[in-house]
Design brief:
Structural class: alpha+beta
Strand content: 15-25%
CATH superfamily of the largest domain: eRF1 domain 2
Strand order of the largest sheet: 1-4-3-2-5
Number of strands: 18
CATH topology of the largest domain: Nucleotidyltransferase, domain 5
Low-confidence stretches: 174-193
Number of domains: 3
Largest sheet: 5 strands, mixed
Helix content: 25-40%
Order of helices and strands: EEHHHEEEHEEEHEEHEHEHEHEEEHEE
Oligomer: single chain
Radius of gyration: 26 Å
Length: 381
């Protein structure tokens, strides 16, 4: 296979310095018969790419760069498994493909840098998370993002139930206790004297789950953890938890009463709320930084600061194109918007900031601070 399907962004290829660079974005369809048109649209887009390449490169190089596109065009399995959109980035050395779950506008260009703003926007809203469903005697872990989640299969030798974890230390007879009542207090039958010990069993079990999830999953992935359980278990688990990735907001329901779609929609609502607050916080941080001369919305100043590795975070308007390029010394040159293959200064800026280990956020026009096209927060003056 001459192309690679990737799932992470950014890929190192966006930092390549030897062009030409091809960027292709296309809306796609999940279902028949609409998806039958997708390869035809793709064929028209790659014809446009080839025509542009022929103006820039010799025939042998054009043929080499185009081969992955032709292979992708004929890959029926690929076109039968797309979602909402695709993105293809290609150079002389590599071709990568993203299957996107968010809408993109049809776009294909050959330029001296990659067009990556749509990819940044797609991935910045795709925060990964873990979903922990918890009862008094069992738990299940899921991993996902805003587009869905799957169950994490634990190793066969990993204890997961209360009985497996506590073993001989389990208070007997444990099954003498009933479920929690509506008021949040345990109900016990006959073995009322065991109430304190059984409560300790639950606490020990929750502490085990907390340590296990943090060490094996939260700590390595740095993903947010959403708890799904009855309200009374939320209180107990959060009180004993040392997992810094556990969110304050959870899903207050027994997972046995929720289907997969219910849990997914509730989790997405939580994640989107987090993303919204994160965006608002960064916009507020920019206002403070600008007031302290640690921020700017002047594109020339921001480009120079990015070249000097001074940009900590840059906010870029999603649908805006500023024709031109950023030179090796950080200076910018503006160009004609009517040029078919012109670079976008905003894309160049995004790549430069990412290369210097800064953060890039692509926002809609109404979310940008002070109606700016670009807004940067500096590490230092």
């Amino acid at each position: 296979m001459l192309y690679e399907i990737v799932h992470q962004f950014p890929d190192d290829m966006i930092f390549e310095e030897k062009g030409p660079f091809i960027s292709l974005y296309q809306p796609t369809h999940k279902h028949f018969p609409e998806n039958k048109q997708d390869p035809i649209v793709f064929k028209n887009l790659i014809r446009k790419i080839e025509q542009s390449l022929q103006k820039k490169a010799e025939k042998r190089l054009v043929i080499s760069i185009m081969k992955p596109f032709y292979e992708l065009e004929e890959d029926k399995d690929f076109w039968n498994t797309t979602s909402t959109g695709i993105a293809v980035l290609a150079s002389q050395n590599k071709c990568i493909v993203y299957k996107l779950h968010s809408m993109v506008k049809e776009f294909a260009v050959v330029a001296d840098s990659f067009h990556i703003k749509p990819l940044i926007k797609a991935f910045q809203g795709m925060e990964c998370y873990h979903l922990l469903t918890l009862s008094r005697d069992n738990f299940t872990l899921y991993e996902g993002n805003r587009y869905g989640f799957t169950e994490v299969k634990l190793e066969p030798d990993v204890p997961s139930t209360l009985k497996d974890v506590l073993g001989d230390q389990l208070t007997e007879p444990y099954l003498g206790s009933g479920s929690f009542g509506g008021g949040g207090s345990p109900i016990y039958y006959e073995q009322g004297g065991k109430e304190e010990e059984i409560g300790k069993d639950t606490e020990k079990y929750f502490r085990y789950i907390d340590r296990f999830i943090f060490e094996k999953y939260s700590k390595p992935s740095k993903s947010s953890l959403i708890l799904v359980s009855l309200k009374e278990y939320h209180a107990v688990f959060k009180q004993i938890s040392h997992n810094s990735y556990l969110l304050d907001q959870g899903i207050n329901a027994s997972y046995s009463t929720l289907d997969v779609k219910d849990m997914a929609s509730k989790a997405i609502e939580i994640i989107e709320n987090i993303n919204l607050k994160k965006t608002e916080k960064i916009v507020q941080s920019y206002a403070k930084a600008e007031a302290e001369s640690l921020g700017s919305s002047d594109i020339a100043q921001v480009a120079k600061a990015a070249y000097e590795s001074r940009v900590e975070t840059v906010l870029i308007e999603a649908d805006k194109i500023v024709p031109g390029r950023i030179h090796d010394n950080g200076a910018i040159t503006f160009d004609d918007i009517d040029h078919p293959d012109i670079d976008d200064i905003l894309d160049d800026l995004a790549v430069l900031v990412l290369k210097r280990k800064g953060n890039v956020m692509v926002l809609s026009k109404d979310k940008m601070p002070q109606a700016a096209v670009v807004a940067a927060i500096y590490r230092y003056r």
